[in-house]
């Protein structure tokens, strides 16, 4: 079992109104030194395979086909080995 | 200038309907080995200070006061040094 951590971010040239709104909210709360805020998605994906390369390929295809919009977004992918999912659905990192 | 990378994730005990929907969509696209998907927020925040400890403290306070809902969410924070923002608003990582 592998866990893929995917970060999907808006490209630098794309306006991020949600980030701007959060930045204004932070300024209003007194965080004057916060210069810029950009908001993206953090996706955790558990892939049931024993092969790290296969897990990476599956996660990459999932990003390309569904998770990221290639016109406006970039994605960054990291894979880590985890033990098989437990009954509560969480997964434990291998020591 | 420091950049804070924040990941805000739903706690394991909280249902994630958005993640479930993405998991179903991936299954429908043929990704049968994707076992579970959880979706959170990835927030990039540029803090205008020369002191890494101060940048971390500011980012942490921003998480506590605005970005994360402590009842349902956890946050993970990483700080990296970046050069001062360029004209287009992007920031370059120090070598």
Annotated CATH architecture of the domain at 2-13 and 40-81 in chain A: 2-Layer Sandwich
**Given the helix and strand composition of chain A, which structural class is it?**
alpha+beta
Question: From the structure provided, what is the oligomeric state, counting identical versus distinct chains?
Answer: homodimer
Residue-averaged pLDDT of chain A: 90
CATH fold-level label of the domain at 2-13 and 40-81 in chain A: Mth169, Chain: A
Rounded to the nearest angstrom, the radius of gyration of chain A is 17 Å
Number of strands of chain A: 3
- Could you give the order of strands across the largest sheet of chain A? 2-1-3
Using a beta-carbon cutoff below 8 angstroms, give the protein chain pair with the largest interface and the number of residues from each chain: A-B, 40 and 40 residues
CATH superfamily of the domain at 2-13 and 40-81 in chain A: Phosphoribosylformylglycinamidine synthase subunit PurS
Unreliable stretches covering 5 or more consecutive residues of chain A: none
**N→C terminal distance of chain A:** 14 Å
CATH class of the domain at 2-13 and 40-81 in chain A: Alpha Beta
Proportion of beta-strand residues of chain A = 25-35%
The major sheet of chain A is characterized as:
3 strands, antiparallel
User: What pattern of helices and strands is seen along the backbone of chain A?
Assistant: EHEHE
Helix content of chain A: 25-40%
Secondary structure tally, helices of chain A? 2
Q: Estimate the global geometry of chain A from the Cα principal axes.
A: elongated
């Amino acid at each position: 079992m592998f866990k893929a951590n995917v970060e999907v971010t808006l490209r630098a040239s794309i306006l991020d109104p949600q980030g701007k709104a959060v930045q204004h909210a932070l300024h209003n709360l007194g965080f004057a030194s916060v210069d810029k805020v950009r908001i993206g998605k953090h996706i955790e994906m558990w892939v049931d395979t024993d092969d790290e390369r296969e897990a990476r390929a599956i996660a990459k295809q999932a990003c390309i086909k569904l998770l990221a919009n290639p016109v406006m977004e970039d994605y960054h992918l990291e894979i880590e080995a985890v033990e098989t999912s437990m009954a509560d659905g969480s997964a434990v990192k291998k020591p």
